[in-house]
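JOB MANIFEST
job_type = single_chain_structure
chain_count = 1
residues = 200
[input]
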Amino acid sequence: MLNLLIFGPPGAGKGTQASLLAKKYTLNHLSSGELLRQERENGPLGVKIKKYQDAGQLVPDSLIIKMIEEAIKKDLNGNGFIFDGYPRNLHQAKALDRFLKTLGKNIQIVLNLKLNSKTATERILLRSKTSGRSDDNKKIIASRLQVYRQQTTPLLEYYKTQNKLKNIDGSPAIKSVFQQISEIIKNRFSPFRKKAAANE
């Protein structure tokens, strides 16, 4: 079983890479944003989540953690998971480690897509032209990048001390970044070498 986390600032293509990895290695792609949307619409935690979101408040860690744990339990016999957008803080990270340990599982690799602020801003502004997002301006982007760095730095240190952190240059094209990540997985996990080679 292969369990991955992927981090990356806005504009790094984190969601795209997570989707590609999920397809290549037949992993369950757990996107916290997508899970929140699904849960809000028809999940057992939806009423509570809607209450916080409609009030403009952050959904508490306790609800997010419970939501993720329930999602994991639905696919315990699969090839593994790739977590996208989760964890967002140390409390969530430690809760995830504890929960996976009770299942006899763990996170093996933490992928960190690195992208400088200038490139990230350019990519987001370009994307906004096609997506029509009115909130993508330089001031808001700078704020989002700052918040991301503040949230993520402690998490990266946490996983670095566990010898799980792998930094990847997120500035090349999607295919090139994907090849970098695939090589890391192939080199670290021999059971996936044949499968990786077959899908290349």
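[summary]
The chain has a mean pLDDT of 90.
DSSP finds nine helices and five strands in the chain.
exit_status = 0
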